[in-house]
Design a protein that fits this description.
Layout: E1 7-12, H1 19-27, E2 33-37, H2 38-43, H3 58-77, E3 81-86, H4 94-103, E4 107-113, H5 117-125, H6 135-143, E5 155-156, H7 163-174
Helix pairs in contact: 1-7, 3-4, 5-6
């Protein structure tokens, strides 16, 4: 295995794209790996919580992403491949996460899972968790990954792939093995 000390993978995409499942598979392929589900960090807020896709949540989101980056930095510096999985939207908080990780001297790779909207709706529709499975919210978030500019090179269209195949694609693309 490749030495992964100081490496972080930001794995993002809309709800239903397979991020969490793929992150678990990739993390299990290494002797020392951490899978941080960044969405969980939002749920640590017990009062004053604002749904993170709402415009008024900007300040809250900055705090949460800073804490995610601090946590990822600590694990990576301790020698773990650190996979940060979440709906980390470009233009909202992707850049601040990426900047903070790189500012800590870490090597950062990015992968954006972006299956079709129909696939995301189908996958998320089987979830009990709301509101990320609600069509209007999911569509809003999916469209946030639609026009990525320079980040487009990091997109993996996994519409036709099972999670293991997506993990293989990601692992090969990033040369993590």
């Amino acid at each position: 295995m490749t030495d992964v000390h100081g490496n972080v993978l930001i794995l993002t995409g809309p709800p239903g794209s397979g991020k969490t499942t793929v992150a678990r598979i990739v993390a299990d392929r290494f002797d020392r790996a951490v899978h941080l589900e960044s969405d969980d960090f939002f749920h640590f807020i017990r009062s004053g919580y604002i749904e993170p896709w709402k415009s008024e949540s900007h300040g809250q989101n900055e705090v949460v992403i800073r804490i995610v980056a601090d946590t990822a930095t600590s694990y990576a510096e301790a020698g773990y491949l650190t996979i940060v999985d979440g709906i980390i939207l470009p233009g909202w908080f992707f850049e601040s996460l990426d900047d903070q990780l790189r500012g800590a001297g870490l090597e950062v790779a990015t992968a954006i899972l972006r299956p079709s909207l129909a696939v995301c709706l189908s996958r998320a529709g089987t979830r009990a968790s709301r509101p990320l499975a609600d069509r209007p919210v999911l569509e809003q978030l999916w469209h946030g990954f639609e026009d990525l500019g320079t980040l487009e090179r990091h997109v993996i269209d996994n519409s036709e792939q099972e999670a293991d195949a997506t993990a293989d694609t990601l692992t090969a693309r990033l040369s993590l093995r």
